[in-house]
Design the sequence.
């Protein structure tokens, strides 16, 4: 791919054809990624090291932590961010290959429909991620986790484990849920903006 295509692709990703899309990019790229990258590491970075069970043995701690965290929140949310970006990136790659200017996207029905479809896909992916997050992490992190260690052939089947910084993790969970909801609202608003521009209610850029 030529440098011109790459430049068009990057400009499309950073400056979508709608005002709300540009705000979504700013929110998604700066606030949400910064929150996950910086604060997420501070909250979850050393969780496995401080996760302890009774009895406090390495094999029990490791087994129970893997049971407690089938996937670490940082990895889940990083995958969510990447996957949600795919539909928009695919559209802007198509636009770059076809040499479509950003200001022309909303002028033609096919391009506008294609772009709107990519926004719909973002909404669906965010909704699926929201549901998966509920299944994996719930809405609250308890201070005590009851672990089933029967598979280790111990004399006991259930052991108590201490979850470090559970209150901070609960706050962080709620924040990530909130970010997902905000993103979905922005996507819905972007579809509304596209529809209004297509109907002539709003002037095109």
Sequence:
């Amino acid at each position: 791919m030529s440098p011109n295509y790459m430049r068009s692709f990057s400009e499309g990703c950073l400056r979508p054809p709608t005002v709300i899309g540009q705000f979504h990019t700013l929110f998604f790229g700066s606030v949400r990624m910064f929150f996950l990258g910086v604060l997420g590491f501070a909250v979850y970075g050393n969780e496995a090291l401080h996760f302890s069970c009774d009895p406090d043995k390495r094999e029990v701690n490791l087994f129970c932590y893997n049971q407690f965290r089938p996937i670490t929140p940082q990895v889940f949310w990083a995958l969510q961010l990447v996957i949600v970006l795919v539909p928009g990136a695919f559209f802007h790659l198509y636009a770059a290959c076809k040499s479509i200017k950003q200001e022309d996207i909303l002028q033609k029905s096919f391009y506008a429909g294609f772009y709107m479809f990519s926004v719909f896909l973002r909404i669906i992916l965010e909704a699926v991620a929201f549901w998966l997050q509920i299944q994996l992490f719930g809405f609250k992190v308890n201070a005590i986790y009851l672990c089933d260690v029967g598979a280790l052939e111990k004399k006991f089947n259930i052991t108590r484990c201490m979850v470090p910084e559970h209150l901070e993790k609960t706050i962080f969970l709620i924040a990530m849920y909130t970010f997902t909801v905000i993103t979905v609202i922005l996507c819905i608003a972007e579809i509304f903006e596209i529809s209004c521009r297509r109907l002539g209610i709003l002037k095109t850029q």
The chain has one domain: 3-198. The chain has a mean pLDDT of 81. The two ends are 28 Å apart (CA to CA). Residues 7 and 26 are 19 Å apart (CA to CA).
